[in-house]
Write a structure and sequence with these properties.
Strand order of the largest sheet: 1-2-4-6-8-10-12-14-16
Strand content: over 45%
Number of helices: 3
Number of domains: 1
Structural class: mainly beta
Shape: globular
Distance between the termini: 34 Å
Number of strands: 17
Helix content: 10-25%
Radius of gyration: 19 Å
Length: 278
């Protein structure tokens, strides 16, 4: 259901049209859709209850500023798709005790996009998982920053960022994971991988760990590397054209993000975005 629908039993809307605040309360599993809207400066979501709230969001040429407050025991699945360029996306997720947040962003669009995602794990046993897939071709510039701040005991965060860079495209991943004083028995993990097809590509992955407590788990991995030529050779030796081989390898690298999206029209548009880049 569209989050802007007036008749919605789970939602109370406050604020004005450019700065809306939505109080979402449900003990059941519900699905919400946030369409692209260039007239909104900032959206605040206050999510309460023991159910799972699944949010699907599409972004097209937007300046996006979201604050998502997840109250005790609530669960959120948040899927974001960039379909056009010039998105400047900023997300702040604040998590209380026993909450779960699963976020996924797919950016297969043409052009330049930026992301600044910050998750504050403020309550004990808050758990967050983040997944990102990004494609940069031609002269695209994609800059993606993802940060986790562990502010309570027994919190958990994991980020998985994957990118494919072709032509003269540019991808930059910045991952920051901080376990602050007092956040004992917490765990934070991050993984960033960028596959580079062409010599003029620009790809960078910068993982940062800031640990200010003992009795914790923390790890990071960052890999930027060229495509394995043996894979291209294997496919072309079986009659597949080189461009098609590149596409198949790209799809295999980025397709795992699709499991976080279950809307057929959105999945179709994602496929069209990828097809349009080759």
């Amino acid at each position: 259901m569209n989050i802007f629908e007036e008749t919605n039993p789970y939602i109370v809307k406050k604020g004005d049209s450019s700065l809306p605040i939505f109080d979402i309360t449900s003990n059941d599993n519900i699905s919400l859709f946030i369409p692209s809207n260039s007239n909104i400066k900032k959206i605040t979501l206050n999510i309460k209850g023991s159910g799972q709230v699944s949010i699907l969001e599409t972004c097209e040429n937007n300046i996006i500023d979201h604050e998502i407050n997840i109250f005790e025991n609530a669960k959120v699945h948040h899927s974001i798709a960039f379909f056009k360029d010039n998105n400047e996306a900023k997300y702040a997720v604040n998590m209380e005790k026993n909450t779960e947040y699963q976020g996924a962003l797919a950016d297969f669009s043409k052009g330049n996009n930026t992301l600044d995602f910050v998750c504050n794990l403020n309550g004990e046993y808050a758990k967050s998982n983040w997944n990102l897939a990004c494609l940069s071709c031609e002269n695209d510039v994609k800059k993606m920053s993802v940060s986790f701040f562990h502010n309570a005991k027994h919190t958990y965060a994991k980020m998985e960022n994957y990118g494919v860079c072709e032509d003269e495209g540019s991808i930059e991943f910045l991952g920051t994971s901080s376990i602050n004083k007092g956040a004992k028995s917490s765990a934070t993990h991050q993984n960033a991988k960028i596959m580079v097809f062409d010599p003029k590509c620009k790809a960078k992955a910068n993982p940062v760990l800031c640990i200010d407590e003992n009795d914790v788990e923390a790890s990071h991995a960052a890999v930027v590397g060229q495509i394995n030529e043996d894979h291209i050779f294997y496919l072309t030796s079986r009659g597949i054209e080189e461009e098609t081989a590149k596409k198949l390898i790209t799809l295999g690298y980025l397709n795992p993000i699709l499991r976080f999206f279950n809307d057929e029209s959105v999945l179709e548009r994602m496929s069209e975005n990828i097809d349009g880049r080759f």
